[in-house]
Specification:
The complex is a heterodimer. Chain A is an alpha+beta fold. Chain A folds into 2 domains: 3-49 and 267-403, no CATH class; 70-253, no CATH class. Chain A is built from 13 helices and 14 strands. A 6-stranded mixed barrel of chain A has the order 3-4-9-6-8-7. In chain A, strands 2-10 form a two-stranded antiparallel sheet. The two termini of chain A are 30 Å apart. Chain B is of the alpha/beta class. Chain B has a single domain, classed as P-loop containing nucleotide triphosphate hydrolases (Rossmann fold). Chain B is built from 7 helices and 10 strands. Chain B has helices spanning 44-51, 74-84, 100-110, 115-128, 144-156, 174-191, 202-205; strands at 2-13, 16-28, 33-37, 59-64, 67-68, 85-88, 162-166, 194-198, 210-215, 218-224. Classes of the chains: A alpha+beta, B alpha/beta. The interface between A and B is medium-sized, with 25 and 33 residues.
Amino acid sequence: MRVIPFLAFKDMKRDKKIVVLVVFLLAFSYINMTFFPAFLNGLSDTFQSEIVDTGTSHIIIQPSLDSNEQYLNFESSIRKKIDLIPGVVKSSAHLYATGTAYYENKQSGIRIEGTNPSDDIEVTTISQKLLRGDYLSDDDDEIVVGEYIAGRKIEDSIGKNSAFGRNVEGLGGVDVGQKIKIKFSNGVEKEYKIKGIVGSEGFSFVSQTVYISKREADSVLGISDKASAILVKLNDKNSADKYKKLILELGIANADIETWQEASSFVNGINQTFGIVITITTMVGIIIVMATVGIVIFINTTRKRRIIGVLKAIGMQKNQILGVFLFEALFFGILGTLLGLAIVYSIVFYLTINPIVVPIGYLKPILPLETAINAVVILLVSSVIAGYVPSRMASKQEVLENIKTVE
Amino acid sequence: MIKLKNVSKTYSMGDVVVNALAGIDLHVKKGEFVSIMGPSGSGKSTMLHLIGVLDKQTKGSLIINNIDVAKLNDEERTTFRLKNLGFVFQFYSLLPELTALENTFIPNLLGGKNFDQCRKNAQVNLVKLGLGERLKNYPHQLSGGEQQRVSIARALVNKPEILLADEPTASLDSKSSLNVINIFKQLNEEIKQTIVLITHEEELGKKADRGIWLKDGVIDKEKRF
């Protein structure tokens, strides 16, 4: 069977330019099939990390929608029980409110979150997002303000708008030490001194929130030992399902318990939506591969009809003829895949070190091995299938038909 | 060696039936050099395609080397050609991407020989045919006569029982044509190579031991030279 690779390589060596063109087209198809999913993975990872790190932690317990309760009652005793479960790092109670912030002639609608910083520092990364000043303490009367609310400089790398297009002029650039007035949705009005500014680039809940101590939130809202949500941090976030069951066994009244995957499931929805686009781009990739390889092999077999006939006449079997052209198709696929892999991983490596700054944050493409391997398999199989049809046609032609082609 | 008994070949072209060969009886002995001549449409190429196991007769029997080739399946026919027959075609029968040496050793390679053996055998044959200086030349770098000599070298590399040549001089000038036919003559005389030559040039055909003239699918006359 050594005649198959021998003839295939000789044929490709003669048509080097065609080989280079086909390989580049196949590499392009590989990039087409892998880079967009890698980009999307990076996007959803950015989204999901932000949600988990600052919004839900690994498990979030909230009042059940059916109960019409606004708060979870007896949050301190619930958290004590949860904190005793082995594998739980810590739980943290959060109180959510809304209101309007005022500074001089500017005002901004805000969401307000009350936490116990001493607990929360182990559960969320909010305190790590401090840009200026200091973070809250448990008994603070001061507040920490998200940078979009405080107002950001125009020359900011992200630009003027936040994730959802809201103007980030906010309160016009208030800063640490200045005082702003907050009118809560229950009508309470109070002036607070800004202790710190928090925020992160791009899509960020933190940048759009005012943080106060839970003691202060209790006082303003006129409640005690209640929470809008209890966030639970685990040693192993991949065991969230198991811990959800353990927490369910505690029998917390009127509560919905969600793992981080469930709470951020809308990201999966986004992924599924983009999945359709990925399917289309993959299909386009397959069409490019099949058309390129199929046409090149077809032209090659048509051009060589007489020589194929001569080879058959002198003793070359049909399956050997088929083998030569399939070998070429597979070789195109292998070279195209290798080049595609090299280019895609180079781009991914570069963008991991130098992420792209887009309106929703820093984007680092993530290319799962499974996606890379799937694309390799798709490309190779498509190449061979595309090559098979014209190769089979050529191998099945009668010897005399071939020989008489030019005669 | 080659026995055709009452061999007929008919083609259907729509409603028209063409009798390319009609009841041919022929016996070519081992070591014989036979030329088959005749005008266009006389059936000489059809006869070579049958003897070359490239086509099947409609009627009659064709025995080559005591094998009834009509009973062979497609794969067996290909193997039979590889092991027993050597072909020299009219023109353009060399692979353009292969050198003279590589073109010559293809039948050896198909027969399962390793590259060293293949190169050695091919080189011996090409040198014998006066192409020792042209081993690494590609077909486009060779003259028509040289290309045909490479074809002959290729046809002989597997040491076939029968050498079949289908108008091998049709696209050559008279000097090259004579050269090619002299090679056949020499092969026949020196190694007793059985040769069946199809040609429409009687002067060249007369170099064979025996000439057979076909006309309208039947043997018109036969003559020993």
